[in-house]
Every structure is written in structure tokens, then in C-alpha cells.
Amino acid sequence: MKAINITRTLFVIAGMILFTSTTLWAGNTAKAPAKALRSVISESVKFPETINKDDLTGTVEVVFSVNEKGKIEISRIKSENQQIIDAVTKQLGELSCNGLNCPTYQQYRIEITFKLV
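^ thats the sequence. predicted structure below, dont judge the formating
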């Protein structure tokens, strides 16, 4: 009877260690691609020249995912300025995220602000 209780206790402890280590591991890996993706987008999306000439400013909110080919698929884009929406849509459509190892079709949200300095 003592051997059965000790065996059960060891299995419970082993299960708890396995469960906590896998959830911690998954949480850390999910943050790394998101940070890298934000960095790539902030370096790639530039203030469009046509908007610069018109002295337009604004913020665009983009909800997107990355497909298996590394291309960004926009699911929702919102701004008060249609020119900014068009420019961001075009720039994100040309962007490739192949080397980032992002989970496919995970939803990301980013805000990009365009303002004159």
C-alpha cells in the first residue's frame, strides 16, 4: 500500500513539473516572434510621400495574421484617413516575414501613427 501511494505521489509531481514547464516554454516563445514582427513592421512601414505632400497625419489600427508563406494578411484596418489606409495596406502587402518563425494565422494588432515633425 505504501508503494502505491509513493508511486502516485511521484506521478503527480512529475505531471505538475511537465505541465508547468511546457506552459512556461510556450509563453516565452509566443512573445519573441511578436516582438520581432513589430520591429520588422516599424522598420518597413514608412511615411508615404503622397501623404507627406498633403500634410496629412493620422493613426491606423491594423489587425492581421501571417500566413504559411510569411505574407501578412490584413483582417481589419481602421483609420480616419483613406490615403493612410491605402498606403499601409500596400506596404504591408509587400512585406515578407519568412525568417521570423511566427505562428501561422495568429492574430496581431498594431497601431501606426503618421505625424509631421
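The mean pLDDT is 76.
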